[in-house]
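Data deposition worksheet. Section B asks for the primary sequence of the deposited chain exactly as it was used as input, without tags or linkers unless they were present during the calculation. Section C holds the resulting structure in token form. Section D is free text for depositor observations; keep each observation to a single sentence. Incomplete worksheets are returned to the depositor.
Section A, Depositor: J.P.
Section B:
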Amino acid sequence: MSRVAVLVAANLLAVVGVSTGTVAAAPGVPAANGDCRNDGTSFDDRLIPGHCLRNGGYRFEMQYDGNLVLYSGGRACWSSGTDGTDGVYAEFSGDWQLDSPWFSLESPYGRLRKYHGKYTGAHKTGNVSLNGKGEVWIAYGKFVSC
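Section C:
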């Protein structure tokens, strides 16, 4: 799927979310209802608005307002600070580049943030994952935690 098609789909999802009453939380503010599409405990491609990773009482959510937030229950533990930018999605890259692995927050206006992970030895594969302790990992590197 082309980048333009993904951005159009992400914007369409944002409009659907607004019309159905889904409200995204501002940084540090609990989500109204925590309703997001559960994509499991990891992603290795993209996390689009309205989707999240869940593990136990933890949730790593790409919100419709452009903010990526880690929650413990209803409390925000960490946020990307990118709220207010439409069409933002998280994208993982583990493509054997010198600076891999990483994930970035992409928007129609370009890259907003880039976060680096770590590979170990011969292990050159990975994803972005949320474990049961509220830790987000980029491949083999711990990124944030509650």
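Section D:
The first helix runs from residue 3 to 19.
The domain at 3-145 is CATH 2.90.10.10 (Agglutinin, subunit A).
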